[in-house]
Amino acid sequence: MRVLITRLLPDAVIAAARARFDVTLRELGRPMSAEEAAAALRDYDAVLPTLGDAFGTSAFDAVDAPRCRLLANFGVGYNHIDAVAAQAKGIAVTNTPGAVTDATADIAMMLILMSARRASEGERLVRAGQWTGWHPVQMLGQHVTGKTLAIIGMGRIGKAIARRAHFGFGMRIVFFNRSPVADAGMPAVQAATVAEAMAAGDFVVTAVPGGPATRHIIGADALAAMQPHAHLVNIARGDVVDEAALIAALTERRIAGAGLDVYEREPVVPEALKALNNVTLLPHLGTATSEVRTAMGMMAVENLLAFAEGRALINPV
Q1: What positions carry a catalytic annotation?
Q2: Closest to 79 measured CA to CA, from 240, 270, 250
């Protein structure tokens, strides 16, 4: 079975795939274009793609009878894949849920703390040689313990963030979810709307999946509902937040700050965001630990193995 792996992955993952399949490893750092994706659909029995690879409608439309029968995505998010178009061509899609949950929740908490305590601003001050020493009112930030956290999206990752915030920092949890959540695992209030949840939060974290249904779910109206002292953290997908509306809210100090791990047009980060002191910017580090990336890759390989052996796919989407 011919398998294309579209980016460099941890050595253990590549070795596991090569032990079972005829593997072609694409070693370019950039995501696949639609033309490259279409060629992969024609030439391989299965593809292990990842974030940004352009398996959209145009790639599927360009191939009448694809050889490929499985896209074993490396990552829980698969908004770079048109799963409906894939299904219409007889191609299954899988992802890697579970493996990413704790690492992504950890990054959310880190960004909450960094934004609240002005950590990235303080580090820039030290690195620039402009720190003049401690004094009582220097760089005063906000306390996190005991505050209210609003979570937009109460799936696996949302619940993992809530556990850390509630049990670790004594935070009150308010959340919005498109469907009712019977048991959040702790005391939590489900809000009727995104704006209602955001209005209640001292801190707001987005943890929804990407895709058309959630694009710009955090727009100008939702941001306007936030309290002036509140901070927004996005660890979901970049286009969940209307970046222009967020820049305006931060520039005009209508909200206190933001912590971002993802961006609307990655890897492009607007100069207006980079110029602001009240935003913490990370280069999409959500799952960036060797243990987690290896676990993600092994889960993708397990889906490939299940497909090759005629078993039920482990993580179909």
Answers
A1: 237, 266, 284
A2: 240
